[in-house]
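Changelog entry

Holo records now carry the ligand SMILES as an explicit input line rather than a separate metadata file. Below, a converted record for S-adenosylmethionine, shown in the new format.
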Amino acid sequence: MANKNLNAAKTAKKDEFYTQMTDIERELQHYWPHFRDKVVLCNCDDPYESNFFKYFALRFNQLGLKKLICTCFDGSPVQGNELLLQFDWDDVDEGADASERRNSDECHARKRDLLPKKIAYKVEITEVKDLNGDGALDLADVQYLLKNNKNVISLLKQHGDFRSAECIELLKQADIVVTNPPFSLFREYIGQLMQYEKSFIIMGRMSALHYSEIFPLIMQNKLWCGFNFNISAVYKAPYENTLEANRKYVISKGLNPDDNYIKVPAICWYTNLDISKRHEAIDLVCRYSPDEYPHYDNYDAIDIGKVQDIPFDFPGIMGVPDTILGQYNPDQFEIIGLGCGDLGKVIGVGKNYRGRTDLAYTKDGKQKCPYSRILIRNKHPKQL
Ligand SMILES: C[S@@+](CC[C@H](N)C(=O)[O-])C[C@H]1O[C@@H](n2cnc3c(N)ncnc32)[C@H](O)[C@@H]1O
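Structure line, unchanged by the conversion:
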């Protein structure tokens, strides 16, 4: 049911899923040394709604950030209210040729509402001080900074679209990009990060692992999965949550589905930063036997039902579940390709995606297609 919900989001291009602070904290706690003296960009992100912005603004000094940049897309229907900050757009630096926009009906309406709704803008922070003099660095200081420092917020002219020229200029400044980008534009989003050779920590759907634009990057060790893998994330989203099981899950997490909280299953983090997890080898305890590990009928490899059943002594190719990517260590295994099961379309078998064969094996006289398999080879099979 939850998958249906997620797929519906994809079909309707519903992209407004706001990440919980706890999910951000759980992942980013592992990357702290990477942030020192770095420019962090949170794009596709409304600083007035976003916990990514809050996360970095509140820890700006602890992390030793050089600069924090956040950009907001004006296609978002979500009204900023989390920081409970109203600012007067007359005070905001709108750029040199802004008079036309400033006088438009739309802009007047926005000013009237004094809400940062659907306005494309950027926030750039180079320091966070105890500005209100209360002896602590907290959200009140960030609010004070946004409200009182005119250099910090400025309008964007090109909708805040991550593909726009002005957002690309900000991307060029960035060392690390951290966000939850729109699900519907994930391929393009990753393509851009690759083009500009940026480091990143971003959230996405597990199904993206199989995209023909993404899987080759995993094979080439240009992208891998972060710490929190195959999780069910609860997002704040402006969509009605009417699914019983989904609502129950949200309630079990102490949140109210009527406050637009929604569970999205099969989420993981994608990164290209070197993380400790990537150097931890999976403990292999099973020994290979032809009876226990069926050989595919149509590809020279054996099928493995669970990652923990990978034999330590098999030198050939093995088809393993996608969950291997949550524990993948490139020193231990090499990824050979992707073979899909009977539910998906085959992306290909083999390094060049030339193969077009669905993986299948025969057991008890019946041919079986495993659900989804990644083809790997153990780089150091042991012979005991
Ligand atoms: C999954 S939401 C995540 C929001 C926020 N980063 C967070 O995690 O809380 C993706 C955001 O990307 C925005 N978005 C959609 N298309 C975009 C585009 N072309 N350029 C920039 N942002 C876009 C959506 O409006 C939405 O706010």
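Spot-checked after migration. The mean pLDDT is 84. Residues 2-276 form one domain.
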